[in-house]
Protein: MBL fold metallo-hydrolase
Amino acid sequence: MSWVQERRIGEFRVTSLTDGQFRLDGGAMFGTVPKVLWSRVTDSDDLNRIPLRVNPLLIQRGGENILVETGLWDQGGEKFDHMYAAERDESVFRGLEAVGLGAEDIHLVICTHLHFDHVGRSVTALGEPTFPNARYVVQGQELHDARHPHERSRASYIPQTFEPLVDAGLFDVVEGEHDLRPGLSVLPLPGHTLGMQGVVLRSGGQTLVYTADLLPTLNHAPLPYIMGFDLYPVTTLETRRRYFPQWAEEGAVICTPHDPHVPFARLTVGERGAFHAVPDAVAVSP
Ligand SMILES: [Zn+2]
Structure:
């Protein structure tokens, strides 16, 4: 089965893409949750790394093509690819090609945050914007923090993935919740970073949420399953408590940036109020 799947959300056509697989330390991915618990829901390799994907999302309506996230950094050479076990079995470009699009057809790129596994394909090896006709949307807080990293945040930000976009004046910097188009908005989801944002589509009585790293994979749905990577984990918890009940109640389609298997899901509330994320397999052909 191809990873590329399409859904309709009212007027929007939404296509799940993938920029391949990678691996991160399982302990870091599950924070305070011990391995005795997380090993029940995911495999790990002999270096304790768990399988993940990088999952950009394509949103289309009325001839406009909007990309949420650009992929995993591809200019780190063998050392980088080895450290993160990058398997470039698929790419965001092949996914776009599958729906008849080239890089030049993207009009808008939404950056949830500026970590290398989210904006890694935004700039070519020549230092030019990968999507030459696109503007790039980011929260002001995120752009500031990415450009002023500290010892705890520095490893996640690679200046050459975003500085050329700053130089070219291609960022549309937004502050807080912001309507980008009718039915399409960005929503601050602080915690993983202070300036992270999600993407919300509402059309035809349906809702879709791109969760960014507030919910990195389906296995992270229980409220305390918060990554050790998060800079403000208690803020992550507050953000989850604020939005998970709402998304579950309205039956929103959930897209996560790193689930290795499932492009579309829904949040449900199980026994004793615990959240689960379940695959939403209803794929609608265009
Ligand atoms: Zn991530």
